[in-house]
Amino acid sequence: MGSGPASHRVWVLTVRRFAELAWTRHGPVRYVSVGLTPILVALLTPGWWWALCATGAIVGALLDLRTQAAFTRLCARLDDLDDATIRAAVNRHIWSLAAITAAYVAPYAALAFAPQPAPLIGLLFCAGTALICATLHVMTPAMIVRTIPAVIVGLAMNAYAFGSGFSGVVLAIMAGLLGVNAIMAARAGAASFGDLIGARLNAEAAAEDLERRVRERTTQLAVATKRAQAASKAKSMFLANMSHELRTPLNAVIGYAEIVQEDLESGETGSSAADLDRIRNAANHLLAMINEVLDLSRIEAGRLDLRPTPIDLHVLLRGAMDTVRPTATKQRTVCQVNIAPGVETLVADETRVRQCVLNLLSNAAKFTQNGVVALDARACRIGSVPGFAISVKDTGPGMNAEQLERLFQPFVQIDASHTRAHDGAGLGLVITRRLARAMGGDVQAHSKLGQGSTFTLYLPAKSAPARVAA
Predict the structure, then answer these.
(1) pTM of the predicted model, to two decimals?
(2) What DSSP assignment string belongs to 140-165?
(3) Other C-beta atoms within 10 Å of 326: how many?
(4) Is 85 helix (H, G, I), strand (E, B) or coil?
(5) Which of 40, 289, 364, 376 can pair with 391 through a Cys bridge, CB separation 3.0 to 4.6 Å?
(6) pLDDT (tens digit, 9 = 90+) per residue, 386-415?
(7) How far apart are CA 231 and CA 401, in angstroms?
(8) In 73-209, which ranges are E strands?
């Protein structure tokens, strides 16, 4: 046996298996045999030879029971002992087993000097003991070597008593060969015992591995179920909010259209132009939300077409800021644009880049009151590729770590009340990140609650045309 966890497990299984075989299964039969045989000696052999055999049986049984108790205590402590301690304890117990065998066998070896049929009884008893040793004493080679010599002596002495001179010697040698064969049988039994322990160890390892895999699969299933439930709930909430967001501008279109119709029928068209302007604004808002939903559907279906062209970033960024400036002005928010040297031409899909920048600026302007929205652009590297970093910083309410973690998940809105209070489908950031990744870049967010947020759009200086599933 080697060292390490596997070796320790083998020692534990070996000792417990031997204790089970030696006493639980074979112990009662052994005690009955050594208890009844002195009675046979008393019935068949004149003299006090039976008393010698009875004394050997009593001494051997007492040693046997004491060793059994010691083995039981050892088995109870195996998990807390190291290999060296277990080996030392087993070695002591093997010497005890040798002493037990000698105590059982010695009186029957002495029967070689008693009248017939005492030597036959002694020969049979020693042969039975050899069988027990070959069957049970197979835990280690040392156990075989130390317990069998007393049996061989008993066999040889009783066999010699059946002859005289040369014939006695031949019979003693043959009896000794029986003991040697018992040793060989014990060695074969030791190999089988080792194979049994190995198979048991492998079975336990396989069972533990299966149990571990079942626990892992159960955990994964629980996580997947939780995610599926969260996704289902998020989609339900999204649809509920979307139904409100879509109905609001649609009701405005219908309502103001009816007012314009009534004004035309009555001839009072003084406010019709303003009502038509409201209809146009509501329709544009409705179209923007529908486009967001369609954009996300196209991206998830892998039907997003990118057509890169050279873009003047100065013009695009300032134009995007001019677009959201009215919204910021209503919120009494200051708009700033800072473009670092080296930010010039970007080769990408102009429509999608503008959409990404507008989404970030619109969110910042929408949620910032009496503050600042700053648009910064600088050159950077995206891995080993040159690119640009476009940052949108605001002094709005900011977000905590939990909100940041859910920020870019589709159909998950950070705050339903904010989404309902501010027009929008809540898909802008999701679409922005997926568009950025489709163009070879990404969007990262940093925020602290109460201190504002920073969203940075990373784009390679040159992206390839493609139809991708982001």
Answers:
(1) 0.48
(2) SHHHHHHHHHHHHHHHHHHHHTTS-T
(3) 10
(4) helix
(5) 376
(6) 999 999 999 988 888 888 887 777 655 555
(7) 20
(8) none
